[in-house]
């Protein structure tokens, strides 16, 4: 399609609508003059855009600010979060976690259900996700508009219009899968945009926004079945050129290390991945028999009683993690490294080795050492991140919400 000036004008106006709504959502109640000053838009443009948002039911006036002296009192604006809803879906190996939230990110309904999708058959997963979305639709309030569906999936997701899942070995997907298209085909009644994002990126976004200081740049590293992660810059997920930025598990940290399943040698996952750590601690059989949760808990018990084998495994994992953090910070100059998944409860035993690895750099340039902290949100991180992703996407494009009556 050839773009025209009219097309460009519509796109600019949609972008400005989002600019105004995001400011009101983050800083309201606030006056039109404050919105104009913060966004750089003229007061006349802000007045027109606010009128549009009011008719859509997304913004309302919320009192009057009168600071005394001359001039007219300023009418304050606030967002109406319940006017629109989003649906978030988190896919894990054996279940789907689903939530309905408003534009403030407040969860109004949530559900956890097992899925019986067939390994290596993406269509069966799409069936399960579509069924979960249909269940969630019934929980969307009658006076709210469904404006986004967002799905978090393990494996790198391409940064293209198709949002293709490039590979997902844990699900037997060894070739690219257009999961969004598969789900959309099963939901013909859903007219709002559907998005697919990497689950570790979603968790990274949630942990970033849960951070008390909100650093400018943060890297999230999480260990589950392997090691994943995400990069957040200025509050946004950074996915790189192909959608795979922030995947530290297969960062080589030793040129003569063990062979990795990815084809390289000495990758971080070979030393700090749960399978490597638990096997080194003598808990490999328990991991294979009972799964990650019980084995990870047993490791913490062994560490508490200062079991030598467990402590040695954790020391190696911490050294490897510290080496990876040095490489990451040298390349990206980040403020914060957040450790999630099983790395969070393991943090007290990982930290000494991590700090030792960083000590040389700290002595030379102490001001650039990143803060390394455990994650705060636990198992909820991914779902909360999908909600935040969907919320931000909806705030950026308010035109997806129809007028309640024509202006």
Automatic annotation (TrEMBL):
Pfam family, one: MarR_2
InterPro entries on file: HTH_MarR-typ (IPR000835), ROK (IPR000600)
Record-annotated HTH marR-type domain positions: 19-59
Recorded family membership: Belongs to the ROK (NagC/XylR) family.
Protein name stated in the entry: ROK family transcriptional regulator
């Amino acid at each position: 399609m050839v773009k025209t000036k009219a097309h460009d004008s519509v796109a600019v106006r949609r972008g400005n609508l989002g600019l105004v709504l995001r400011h009101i959502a983050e800083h309201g109640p606030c006056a039109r003059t404050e919105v104009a000053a913060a966004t750089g838009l003229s007061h006349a443009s802000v007045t027109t855009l606010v009128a549009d948002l009011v008719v859509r039911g997304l913004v309302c006036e919320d009192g009057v600010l009168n600071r005394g002296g001359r001039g007219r009192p300023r009418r304050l604006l606030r967002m109406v979060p319940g006017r629109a809803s989003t649906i978030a879906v988190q896919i894990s190996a054996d279940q789907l976690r689903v939530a309905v939230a408003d534009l403030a990110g407040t969860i109004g309904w949530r559900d956890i259900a097992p899925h019986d999708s067939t390994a290596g058959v993406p269509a069966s997963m799409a069936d399960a996700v579509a069924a979960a979305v249909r269940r969630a639709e019934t929980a969307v309030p009658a006076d709210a508009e469904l404006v986004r569906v967002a799905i978090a999936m393990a494996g790198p997701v391409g940064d293209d219009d198709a949002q293709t899942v490039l590979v997902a070995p844990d699900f037997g997907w060894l070739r690219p899968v257009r999961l969004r298209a598969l789900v959309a085909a099963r939901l013909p009644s859903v007219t709002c945009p559907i998005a697919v994002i990497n689950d570790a990126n979603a968790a990274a976004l949630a942990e970033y926004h849960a951070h008390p200081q909100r650093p400018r740049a943060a890297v999230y590293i999480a260990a589950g079945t392997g090691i994943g992660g995400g990069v957040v810059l200025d509050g946004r997920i950074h996915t790189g050129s192909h959608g795979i930025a922030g995947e530290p598990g297969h960062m080589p940290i030793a040129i003569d290390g063990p062979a990795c399943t990815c084809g390289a040698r000495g990758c971080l996952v070979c030393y700090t991945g749960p399978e490597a750590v638990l096997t080194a601690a003598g808990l490999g059989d328990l991991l294979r028999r009972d799964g990650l949760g019980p084995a990870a808990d047993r490791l913490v018990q062994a560490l508490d009683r200062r079991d030598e084998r467990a402590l040695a495994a954790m020391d190696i994992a911490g050294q490897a993690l510290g080496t990876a953090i040095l490489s990451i910070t040298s390349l990206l100059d980040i403020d914060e490294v957040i450790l999630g998944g099983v790395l969070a409860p393991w943090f007290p035993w990982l930290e000494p080795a991590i700090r030792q690895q960083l000590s040389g750099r700290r002595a030379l340039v102490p001001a650039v050492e990143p803060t390394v902290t455990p994650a705060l949100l636990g198992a909820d991180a991914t779902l909360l991140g999908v909600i935040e992703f969907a919320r931000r996407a909806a705030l950026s494009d308010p035109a997806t919400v129809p007028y309640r009556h024509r202006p």
